[in-house]
Design a protein that fits this description.
The complex is a heterodimer. Chain A is mainly α. Chain A has one domain. The chains are: A mainly alpha, B mainly alpha. Chains A and B meet through α1, α3, α4, α5 and α10 of A and α1, α2, α3 and α4 of B.
Chain lengths: 320, 123
């Protein structure tokens, strides 16, 4: 059955992208951060500019002892990393990388699906925080929950603004409908979506839940070895997913100045990496925000801005 | 209808793939790792001193008001999505848009009310 073969190939491609892209972003973060701070970063592993650093890290993680604290809720503790990482793999299923069906599954409610599944990833961190039976973890888990609740709303509003502009919830459909004038028209929505997404990923400057200088590493305090590596990988997979969704919703996904049909995947990849670079850049540039500043940014800025964007999108869409 | 289930079958297959990736990694880990638990190693980490008191400590969840606010808004926001796909089609137009402004008005009023009540300022 050729149909089945196509599906298997697409699943393999999704799994490969999930395995490779987060590592590229991770390595880029090592090097970009280092150079922004006047350091060299990893230089030894793999001889050439430390390109194999993360491979070496992976080998190390795979050999480490799996310690589950005696007081922990064992089953939830062990399950949490899987809950944190698998959703990001699932989101990649609906992200288009090119025109004419270059997407694993063209889901009619793709956008809704992506947002729903992304939310599940955060539950992994909350599970970890609760199940560790550690005070720091519990505090971290609570902060994760607070952050999810504050930032999910602007995220959803900004995303639905793109859906309104396109008139569809299918991600390939949204890219299809995208025109260059979306850039000024949806600019506010794009910024709100990106910032809220960063907060949901708990990336600096929104890393209050895992603030290492005050609550060790928040929900991940008790984790070590491979399970900890899965949480780290989930963070980088999350960066890829957030960048890909921002590119698809607001930056025209696979659309580019020329050769869209042939090079669509390249434009998409370029946008994803450019946005990932911004994620790293923000980490280096801004200090961690305090809990009250976090909440204030969400409720006093992002939610009203997202509502304004909805109004603007609606009016212009009906007027023209 | 056949297509509908077909899409979600692929989704289910990918969950299995994801489970296999994580499970496979942990299985490899099981083969490679040492396993020498000691009592000290398994105690809860508390900056190097013996843990004090119960781990699931009671604390004041300051943001529970935000949680209410979120639930109220999120339930509303879900209805935006089906609406977003049809509102600009011929036959909807102005009236549907006006309804959106009613919706936005409610949300903005709610937010304003919460703000004036001091819910959004952290003390």
């Amino acid at each position: 059955m050729p149909d089945l073969l196509v599906i298997v190939l697409k699943l393999l491609a999704v799994a490969a992208a999930f395995g490779v892209l987060p590592l590229l972003v991770g390595q880029a973060e090592h090097k970009v951060m280092a150079h922004m701070q006047g350091r060299l970063g990893p230089m030894y592993a793999g001889r050439f500019h430390g390109w194999a650093q993360l491979v070496a890290d992976g080998v190390k993680f795979a050999q480490k002892e799996d310690v589950v604290p005696a007081a922990a809720d064992r089953r939830i503790f062990k399950l949490a990393p899987a809950v944190a990482i698998v959703p990001y793999l699932l989101v990649l299923l609906v992200v288009p990388i090119g025109p004419d069906g270059q997407v694993a599954v063209d889901l009619g409610v793709g956008l809704f699906f992506a947002l729903a599944v992304m939310g599940v990833g955060v539950i992994g961190a909350i599970m970890a925080g609760w199940a560790s039976a550690n005070k720091y973890s519990l505090l971290g888990g609570m902060r994760v929950a607070a952050q999810l609740m504050s930032y999910e709303l602007p995220l959803v509003f900004a995303a639905s603004s793109a859906a309104m502009a396109a008139g569809t919830l299918s991600l390939p459909g949204i890219v299809e409908a995208w025109r260059w004038y979306w850039l000024p028209w949806q600019a506010v929505g794009a910024v709100v979506f990106f910032v809220a997404g960063l907060a949901e990923l708990r990336r600096p400057p929104f890393d209050m839940p895992i603030a290492d200088s005050e609550i060790i590493l928040g929900p991940y305090t008790e984790y070590g070895g491979l399970r900890f590596a899965f949480f780290l990988l989930a963070e980088y997979a999350g960066i890829i997913v957030l960048s890909a969704l921002t590119a698809v919703l607001f930056l025209g996904g696979w659309k580019g100045p020329f050769l869209e049909t042939e090079l669509g995947w390249l434009w998409m990849l370029l946008k994803v990496f450019a946005l990932s670079f911004v994620v790293i850049w923000l980490r280096v540039s801004y200090p961690r925000m305090r809990e009250d500043q976090l909440q204030k940014l969400a409720w006093a800025w992002l939610v009203p801005l997202a509502l304004a964007q909805l109004a603007l999108t609606g009016v212009l869409k009906v007027a023209f | 209808m056949g297509d509908y289930f077909h899409d979600y079958a692929v989704f289910a297959a990918l969950i299995v793939v994801g489970g296999a990736v994580v499970g496979g990694g942990l299985a490899a880990n099981r083969l490679l790792r040492p396993d020498r638990p000691t009592r000290e190693k398994l105690t809860t980490y508390e900056c190097g001193v013996d843990p004090v008191g119960d781990h699931w400590a009671q604390s004041y969840v300051r943001y529970y008001v935000f949680a209410y606010l979120y639930v109220v808004f999120a339930v509303d926001a879900v209805f935006l999505f089906p609406w977003a796909t049809v509102f600009s089609l011929p036959g909807y137009g102005g009236a549907t848009l006006a309804e959106m402004f009613v919706f936005l008005g409610f949300l903005a009023a709610g937010l304003l009310y919460a703000g004036r009540k001091g819910v959004l300022s952290w003390t």
